[in-house]
Amino acid sequence: MTDTNFIEVREGGKKYYLFCFFAILFIFSFGFIIPGQRKESIDFLFGKWNFAKLPFFLAFAFVPSLCLFYFFDKRVKVRIDSNGIWSRKYGNIGWNDIWYFNSTICKMRSDGDIYKLHVRLKDTEERLDKEATLKFRRMDRNFDEIRAVVEYYAGKYQIEDLGHESEV
Q1: Which of 71, 105, 135 is the last residue of a domain?
Q2: What's the whole-model pTM score?
Q3: pLDDT tens digits for 33-74?
Q4: Left (φ > 0), alpha (ψ -120 to 50) or beta: where does 85 sit?
């Protein structure tokens, strides 16, 4: 996994999902904490059923479940190896299909910077002016590691590197 010509990138900033889960749990339990609200909350949850309660139950079941799913999600977002660049969005892009690439960084004040890897694909009869943009934010790997692996294969397959720049 630490080989110089292979890297897998997963999502790294999972604390936001856990925070969201506990925030929703706190909001849900807040109705039971306040003595004046306790009776109405118990009547609402365990009282007579009607369809007006359905959106509430769906929201308070779906959102925390989604937060926990993404918190425990260990799936690979991007894999760069000898076969090419694989992502969930674009599938596998072979090294022979890439014409040139460059990368940019967009500095953000909060919540981490956004790194973009722009890959321009070679033109074919079925594919004209196709570009794949891979966005990296809150990842478990440093972008310098990712770029180093792409540069390694770019040198091996004669892919042009247009450099790295910073967006304002």
Answers
A1: 71
A2: 0.78
A3: 878 888 888 888 888 888 888 998 888 889 999 999 999 999
A4: beta
